[in-house]
Amino acid sequence: MRLWISVLAVAMLIAGPVVAASKQPSAYDGVRDGFLYNGKQNMPFKLHGVANAWHLACLQGKVPMCVKMAQVFETGAGDMAGDMRVAIAYWLKACELGSGPACARAAAILRDGSASFTNETLAQQTAERGCNVLKDPSACAASAGGTRDPTRKAELIEASCASGADDGCRLKANRLFYEVADPASRGQALTMYDQACKAKRAWGCLGIADAYGQGLGVPKDPARANEAARVGCTIAAGDRLRLCTLHGMNLARATNDKATLNKGELFLDTSCKGGDAIACNRLGMIGLNQLSNATTTLEEGLYYLRRGCDFDFGEACANLAWAYVGGMNVNTDNAVALALFDKACRLKDAGGCTEARKLAANRNAIPSIDPSWTVEKQLRLAKAAAEGGDRMMGVGAVVRLMQEGNEDAAWLLGGWLYYGLPGVFDTSRRADGLILFENAARVGHVDAAIYMGMAYWYGDGVAEDRAKGERYMLIAANRGNQMAGAIYRSMKAEPIRQENARRQKEYEEWAAARQNDWTSSWSNWTPASSAYTPSPPAWSGPSVSSIIDNSNWNQRINYLSGSTTACPGSNPYC
User: Fold this and answer.
1) Is residue 336 in some structural domain?
2) How far is Cα 68 from Cα 21, in angstroms, rounded to an integer?
3) Averaged over 225-234, what is the pLDDT?
4) CATH no. for residue 399?
C-alpha cells in the first residue's frame, strides 16, 4: 500500500504542472469582476477561475499574461466567451508594458472596428510607440497606415518589409502596384504577390487574383485568378474575406452543377456575414434570379441586397430598388425604389443615377422614414413613431423591412400584433404575432428564439412540444445568451428531475407503510428538489446585431474548405 501511494504521489507531482498549464477558465472555479481601459471606456468583464490569476499577473507587469488574456478574449476559452471590446484593452496594456507586436495588434483593432468602435488617434499613437520606442517592424507598418507624409510613409513601409514584417511587405507590394503603378513597379509587386501566395499568405493571393482577374499590368487570366482566390480563401493565412467572396462567386457560376453552386452560396453567405458587400450583392442576385439549382430564396435575396446596401455598396442598393419596381416579393413602390436608386447614385453607381432620374416624379412620395437608411436606423425611428407619434408610418416601415426578410422587423411587428398597438392593432392578434415570432426565431433572432422556446415548453399559444422548445432555446444559447443557456440546461435536466420526483414519491409511500418498523433518523429524510421553472420572458423590442469575430469566421471557412470537420452551433456562422 505504501509503495502504491508513493508511486501515485510521484505521478501527481509530474502531472501537476502539465494540468495547471492546460487548465481552462471555468465558472466552477469562481467568477470575479474586472475592468480595463479599452480606448473608449473602462470596460467591465467577468473573469472565470484561473483567468483571474492571469489577469492579476498582467496587472503586475507580466506581458505574456496580458497577451494571453488578449488572446482569450479574442477567441474565447473555457467558460469565457470572446469579446473584442475586452481583448483590445489587454493588447493596449501589453503595449504599454513594452510589447511591440501588441502595439501593432492594438492599432489594427482600433482601426478596423472589430471592437465595435474606432479610435484613429489612439491607433496611431499606439503604432508609433511600437515603432519608434519599441522598434517593432510590424508596428512600423501599422504606423505607416496613419502617416500623412508620403515620403515618411514610404520609408516606414520599406523599413518594415526589410525587417521581415509580413504586413510591411503587404503594404509595400500594394503601394507599388496601386499607387506607383508604372510597369516596373507593378512587375516588382507581382513578384512579391506571387512569392507571398506560394507561401500561403492571403494578401499575396489577393494581389494575384485582382491583377489577373481585372487584367491590371498583365493580360486577363480568369483561370489563374480563380486559382489564386481558391488557394487564398481555403489554404492561406491572413485576411481572407475578399478572397472567399471571389472564390464563392467563381463556384456560384457553375449553375448546372448544383453541389458546386450551393457550395458557392455558402462561401458567399459567410463573406456577407463578415461584412463584404460584394458577396451580399452577388448572393442577393442569386436569390432574385431564382436559379434552378440554388438554395437562396427570393426573400433571402432581398435580405442580402439590403445588407449589401447597408454596407454602402451602390450596386446592391440599385438591385434592391429594382425589386420594388418589379414587385418581387414586396409591394411595387416607385417611391421606395427612387430612395434606393438615389442612394446608389450617391455611392457612384451610374445605373442608379439613370433610374433615379426616370423616377424623379415620385420624389415627394418618399416615406418620412427613408427606405435608403440602414435597417437599424429605420427600425429605431419606426418604433419611436409607432409608440408615440405617427403609428401608421412606423408600422408601414416595419412591414416593408419584414417583407425584405429582416428578423428584427418580424420580431417587432410580431410584438405589436401579439400585445396590440392602439390605433393600429386595437385587438390582440396573438396567433399572427406568434407566426412572426417563430419566423424570427428560425433565423436566429435571440429574443424570439427564447420566447418560442418557452412557448413550446409550456404550450403557451402553441401545442406543447418540449423537444421543439429545447431546440429554440438552444438557438439562443448558441448565440451567447447566458439566460438562454441556463434555461436550456434546466430544460435538459427536466427528465432527471421527474425521475427523482417519482423515486421520491415511491420512497415516501414505502416509508409511510413501514414507519412503525423503523426508528432510525434517516427514515424522515427527504431528498431536496432542485426543480426550476423559468418564467416566459416579456417582449422587449428588437435585438441588436453584433460584430462577428475573426476566429468564428475563419472556423466557418475552414469547415467549408474541408480543413476541419467541426463547426459548432455556438459559432454564429455555422
Assistant:
1) no
2) 12
3) 96
4) 1.25.40.10
Q: How confident is the model at residue 99 (pLDDT cuts 50, 70, 90)?
A: very high
With contact defined as beta carbons under 8 Å apart, do 294 and 262 qualify?
yes
- 475 falls within a domain: yes
> Identity (one letter) of the amino acid at 449?
A
Identify the CA nearest to 130 among candidates 165, 159, 106: 106
Instruction: Determine the Cα–Cα distance for residues 82 and 257; give it in Å rounded to an integer.
Output: 38
C-alpha 44/C-alpha 34 separation (Å) is: 6
Residue 92, helix vs strand vs coil: helix
Could you tell me the residue range of the domain that residue 413 belongs to?
375-494+539-543
Q: Is residue 437 part of a domain?
A: yes
- Euclidean distance between the first and the last CA atom of the chain, given in angstroms as a whole number: 52
Q: Which residues of 176-213 are buried (b: 16+ CB within 10 A; e: fewer)?
A: bbeeeeeeebbebbbebbbebbeeebbbbbbbbbbbbb
Categorise residue 164: left if φ over 0, alpha if ψ from -120 to 50, beta otherwise: left
Q: What is the pLDDT of residue 485?
A: 83
| The three three-digit cell numbers of residue 193, written as one number | 504577390
Over range 201-229, report the average pLDDT: 95
Cell numbers that stand for 523 in this block: 427514515
Q: Domain for residue 460, yes or no?
A: yes
3-state helix, strand, coil in the chain (%, to 5): 65, 5, 30
- Rounded to whole angstroms, what are the CA distances from 238 to 44, 68, 204, 232, 437? 30, 20, 10, 9, 39
Q: Could you report the per-residue pLDDT of 308-339, keeping only the tens digit for each?
A: 999 999 999 999 999 999 988 888 999 999 99
421 CB neighbour count, 10 Å cutoff:
18
Judged by average pLDDT, the poorest of 33-37, 38-42, 421-425 is 421-425
| Number of domains the chain is built from | 1
Tens of pLDDT along 343-399? 999 999 999 999 999 999 999 999 999 999 999 999 999 999 988 878 899 999 999
Q: What is the rounded CA–CA span in Å between residue 127 and residue 168?
A: 13
